[in-house]
Amino acid sequence: MERNDLLKWIRCDGADIVDRFLPPGAQGELDSLIHDRRHEIDAGAFLMFMSIRALLCERGMESCDSDREAGQIMAMLST
């Protein structure tokens, strides 16, 4: 999937991506970060990042590459 296609999908139906691709344990990780209060977290952005990363890995992208690509996509969404 091309980056621009993924951006369009997220902008049109980001909730669907989170519903379909949020990895098990991501909500628990978020809850732990919030509970520890060591970091200020945008819960929606965290869950979207985790979902995008999982989607990219599912489509065959290596873990370190999916982290970088998910981060770039998140940056593009905020502009």
Descriptive overview:
The structure is a single chain. By secondary structure, the protein is mainly alpha-helical. The protein has one domain (3-77). Helices cover 77% and strands 0% of the residues. The longest helix has 19 residues, at 3-21. It is globular, with a radius of gyration of 12 Å. The mean pLDDT is 90.
Give a quick summary of the entry.
It contains 4 helices and no strands.
Sheet with most strands: none
Q: Quick check: average pLDDT?
A: 90
Radius of gyration, taken over Cα atoms and rounded to an integer in Å: 12 Å
Task: Count structural domains.
Answer: 1
* N/C terminus separation: 21 Å
The ordered H/E elements are: HHHH
Helical content, roughly?
over 70%
Please state the overall shape, judged from the principal axes of the Cα atoms. globular
Count of strand segments = 0
Low-confidence spans = none
Q: In DSSP terms, counting alpha (H) and pi (I) runs of 4 or more, how many helices? A: 4
Q: Would you tell me the structural class of the helices and strands?
A: mainly alpha
Percent in strands: under 5%
